[in-house]
Design brief:
Structural class of chain A: alpha/beta
CATH topology of the largest domain in chain A: Rossmann fold
Strand content of chain A: 25-35%
Helix content of chain B: 25-40%
CATH architecture of the largest domain in chain A: 3-Layer(aba) Sandwich
Largest sheet of chain B: 5 strands, parallel
Structural class of chain B: alpha/beta
Oligomer: heterodimer
Number of helices of chain B: 17
Shape of chain B: globular
Number of strands of chain B: 14
Helix content of chain A: 25-40%
Strand content of chain B: 5-15%
Radius of gyration of chain B: 24 Å
Shape of chain A: globular
Chain lengths: 288, 501
Amino acid sequence: MFDIVEARFLAPDVKRFRIRAPQIAKRRLPGQFVIIRVHDAGERIPLTIASSDPLEGTVTIIVQGVGKTTKMLNTLEAGQAVHDVVGPLGRAGEIEKVGTVVVIGGGVGAAIAYPTAVAHHEIGNHVVTILGGRTRDLVILEDEMRAVSDEMIVTTDDGSYGRKGLVTDPLNERLAAGWRPDLVMCVGPIPMMRAVAEATRPYAVKTIASLNPIMVDGTGMCGGCRATVGGKTVFVCVDGPEFDAHQVDFRLLALRNRSYLMQERESLARFEQETAHRCALEGTQERS
Amino acid sequence: MSDLKPGDAASTPNPPPAVPAPPSGDGGAPALSAKERMKIPRQKMPEQPPLERIRNFQEVNLGFTAELARMEALRCIQCPKPHCIEGCPVGVQIRDFVKLVAEGDYAGAARLIKIDNVLPAICGRVCPQESQCEAVCIVGKKQEPVGIGRLERFVADFERENRLTQVPGIPPPTGRKVAIIGSGPSGLTCAADLIRMGHAVTVFEALHELGGVLVYGIPEFRLPKEIVHAEIDGLRKLGVEFVTNAVIGLSDTIDGLMENGYDAVFIGVGAGLPYFLDIPGENLVGIYSANEFLTRVNLMRAYSPASDTPVFNVGGKNVAVFGGGNTAMDAVRTSKRLGATRAMILYRRSEAEMPARIEELHHAKEEGVEVMTLITPLEFNGDENGWLTSVKCLRNELGEPDASGRRRPVPIPGSEHEIPIDVAVIAVGNGSNPILRQTTPGLEFTRRGTIVADNATGKTSRKGVFAGGDIVTGGATVILAMGQGRSAAKAIQEYLTSGVW
């Protein structure tokens, strides 16, 4: 069991956890992830490590509740524990002093982009961060990102905060005006990463995407996370998770991520029904 | 089981001689001549009927009763120079344990086996005895060989079920520490041998559950997990320490382990990355590696409604499994149990060349698996949602033998055809895992990605580091991996005692 030291909502359905895992905290590098199993009959899900504290022996993950497992995880509080945490998995991101680096985080992707932004800031790159969300509440880690960025742009789809529009809008404008950053790093929903890749492709600006496919073991054994990159099959867990965004077949990745859509919906519906039932029962007991 | 008669009636020329009642007190086998013994037919393994078992994940083979076991043991002629022991990769004292079975001392037989084989309940189930001990059995020259595997299984189960397992004495601690990477067959065997030599042993496992391929790969219906857990508990009682969720190479490194006081390391991480077919369309939704399909169903128990891990709903669907080994058989039989309408094996050579155990192929066919041979897949096709719909194949004929000595499949021009399928499982073997290669300087690998290790000792290119099992052989059987775990343990003992590399 791995103890939860801190649990706090950053946005609706988005929760930050600090979990005690000293060995992972000691070894982890930016870009790497853990696999978590919430309970004894739980599935294994990959989550990128947002940050770690080797002295305290904790790793921080940020979880968006979308399916049963992530929603169940998000019900946990400090003092409780998750069944399994394994890592750090995957290859660390390549962090080099290149000049100007654009870090783009869409939604909860900001959590994955954050450690990369920190690393680029620390190595001395000029970091331009673009954070995006559907609406104001869904823009997370703004203060943390601002602290490691030389420039910061926030966009929301509905214009409730920052600039109205998509993360690609400011990127497109600047590229069209002749701006040529040395590296673009994007993390977020697949359509966003695809849009970023298409935005930078005509200008041949090196662009990296961090992929988040379905995984089981996370150590190369099952091949469930395979993706097509540059026409070749890769295993995201051991060959990635970061790849040249211009080479990634995002369409296939999106299709594969929908493999269990039906089962996931059913499982979530069952979980929500059970949770509602339990709440109702507890409510009755409190009243009686 | 009352309707089960001993022996296989069809192959019984004479009625079997009467077997005396189980011995009371002093035991002792009945005095039968070798000729009389040879007349006893090989006893059949009771099993779940095919139509029943394809609706559950329980074990197919039900195991011998004590009566069947004693009858089978009486078939052994107690050769003065038995060949069976040489046929066993770990040198189990087969003749003597079979004698104890005939005498009714089942727990004694189990203990005798355990001197050489720490996992008899597992080996009795999954070893290919027909190509090892039983292949060289002298009775087998004229009759069917003695059912050594079935007897091994029986005594191991008897000992466990009757709680007769004894924890053997351990010598005083040597003060030496050994790290074992991987809790599969080679790691467990190595750990068991080293702990009994007085060394401190820690086993590191990447997954959340111990057992390696025994729990993620081999299905419940062939090897119940409860048995694997019981054998691992036995090791825990001996003092072996187990650490799950530890991916050595990432969570820690081999150098890190050695700096932290481990005097030697044994690498038994198994085969790694599954091979795919390298044909168009193989990343479509619906195409699994056998590792993934079996891991979802076995380790993650996707067949159970209580499990959160999904697996494609194969109920009423057509499933094609590519390959002809035991893993392919496990996958296709699993798909049948999950309700597949058509569960097909597609293999590029003929049945004669299949590496699967005969028993597995036989069981698969009994369960309604379609075995389609001499077929090479060319391309997977899918629908607009990226879901698999069919596979385009070519028919082959057998040509000249290739490097493996098996006749090579040669495509027949113009024989292209399409088979509608909903789910495909690729079971054509594994490459190796890059994690240790990327994180262990000085450890030598072959071009195929397997670790270079001495055949007799498991010594690698790094001082104090040994390796065995599939990460060295590239993919073999449980018992061969165990054999390598054992010889490495012996070499580790020599290294720790002498300090000489």
